[in-house]
Amino acid sequence: MLPFKIRFGWGIGTLTVSLMFQATGLLLLLYLTDFVKLDATTAGLLIGLSKIYDAVTDPIMGRISDRTKSPWGKRRPYVFLGTLMCAASFILLFNLAAFADSPNIVIITLFALVLNATGYTVFNVPYLAMPSEITNDYNARTNLVSYRVMAVAAGQLGGSALGPALVVYFGSGIVGHTGMANSLAIIMIFAGMTCFQLTKSASYIKTSVTQQNTSSFFKQFKTAFQVKPFAILLGIKVTQLTGFAIFLGSLPYLFTRVMGLSLSYIGFYFLIQGSVMFISQPIWVRVVSRIGKKSSYYLASLLWGLGALSWVLASQGETNIEIIARGIFLGIGAGGLLLVGQSMLPDTMQYDFQSSGQRREGILAGVYTTVEKLSFAIGPSILGLMLGFSGYNANETIQNDNVISMIYFSAAGFPVITLIISCVLMFFYNVNQDTLKEN
Predict the structure, then answer these.
(1) Which of 189-203, 209-223, 238-252, 413-427 has the lowest average pLDDT?
(2) How far apart (Å, rounded) are the C-alpha atoms in residues 18 and 152?
(3) What pLDDT does residue 54 have?
(4) What's the rounded Cα separation, in Å, for the pair 44 and 353?
(5) What pLDDT, on the 0 to 100 scale, is given for residue 211?
(6) Does the structure show a pLDDT above 80 at 384?
(7) CA within 20 to 30 Å of 129's CA: 140, 206, 281, 321, which one?
(8) Where is 240: in which H helix or E strand?
(9) Which of 27, 277, 331, 299 is nearest to 152 (CA)?
(10) Distance between CA 18 and CA 12 in Å, rounded?
(11) Which of 79-93, 123-137, 364-378, 411-425 has the lowest mean pLDDT?
(12) What CATH number is given for 217-439 in this structure?
């Protein structure tokens, strides 16, 4: 078992990007349209362009970190630099209203978004490569990743629940968003620097120079997909996360258009789900060690799928008890899915190293995060097309039956279908404790 300092130190690092991801996902588009005064189409296009840039640069960052040599190691320098870039760009994004009257506001906004995306990439890609270099122990990695999942849950609480509360606390409007950004940026810096400092004492796996991958970027990218378990893992993630993205995007419509509730209830729901995700991690670690990762994934999928399907029963007059019950059920399922999915990545990295003799954790982490980001970019696009096809009209309080049915399908049907597909793909994934010993 790794020392607590290492587990906590590495895990808390993800709070830096999780806070930023959740807060920008929930608040940024509204801020750009209502306070920076960009039209919705322009704001959406700029965000989309930054996400494409973000996805393309991930494998490049992975290759850079694979080749880095420094007194701080291969990955830790980028944890330090990425933390500062994430915090600074996050503050800039929610101060763009100060430039609202500038004729160059579109360029300024795009610059802020690209800087934010770059900070995310610089931090997250090397960070995700670290577990396979910290330990070769199969079970120890699962336990290590559970601390990251707890930090993801904390980030969800901070971004989706605390973030809106801070906006109100600091006076709402432009001033409120500035106060929120400054406050969360302080937490982001604390988390990133704690990760940087505490992982200093980790005993990193030593490899010789001859094991370093020196092939071209494009060859490495192609090779990543030729690692069969890694290719299957990517299929699992893209199907699972695309469904999750559509599920998350459909919730505001479900709460306001179907259930007749204000958006504040979404924060309440995420408070429950995020808290349950956090406290469920020790339980899931024990479950995984007892029944294995594949069986745990199927169990978590069943729990999450049943929770998602229950939204079909949601209607006007939904009580707090019903929202809490769904938050608990989906929080437990999401906690298991995140733990298993995230812990499979360093397992696959070890499998690749043992099979090829090359250390290319960075390039695999880069391709992996590219798929994650593209999934969360594709999801909202699919949701928008489905709502538009059904006849959704933002100016109408009461939507037609086709729209209501599509909202139900987006929240309950589509995500469950994609989750089932990911379970089918999981059947073909064959990296486990035994195969790693044999390899």
Answers:
(1) 209-223
(2) 6
(3) 79
(4) 40
(5) 45
(6) no
(7) 281
(8) helix 228-253
(9) 277
(10) 10
(11) 364-378
(12) 1.20.1250.20
pLDDT band at 260 (very low <50, low <70, confident <90, very high): confident
pLDDT in tens, 187-203: 999 999 999 999 987 76
Q: What is the pTM of this model?
A: 0.75
pLDDT at 212: 47
Burial category of 412 from C-beta neighbours within 10 Å (exposed 0-12, middle 13-18, buried 19 and up): buried
Look at residues 255, 387, 249 and name the one whose alpha carbon lies nearest to residue 315.
255
Superfamily of domain 1-198: MFS general substrate transporter like domains (1.20.1250.20)
User: Is residue 375 exposed (0-12), middle (13-18) or buried (19+ Cβ within 10 Å)?
Assistant: buried
* Confidence at residue 209, expressed as pLDDT on a 0 to 100 scale: 41
Intrachain domains 1-198 and 217-439 with the same fold? yes
Q: Helix 4-34 crosses helix 173-198 at what angle (to 10 degrees)? A: 160
Cβ(117)–Cβ(53) below 8 Å: yes
Looking at residue 398, the DSSP 8-state letter turns out to be S
Q: How far apart are CA 365 and CA 348, in angstroms?
A: 10
Q: Is 424 exposed, middle or buried (0-12, 13-18, 19+ CB in 10 A)?
A: exposed
| Structure tokens belonging to residue 361 | 């954790």
Amino acid at 163: G
Q: Smallest Cα–Cα separation from 268: which of 319, 333, 303?
A: 319
Residues in the chain: 439
Cα 248 to Cα 229, 231, 254, 267, distances in angstroms? 28, 26, 10, 12
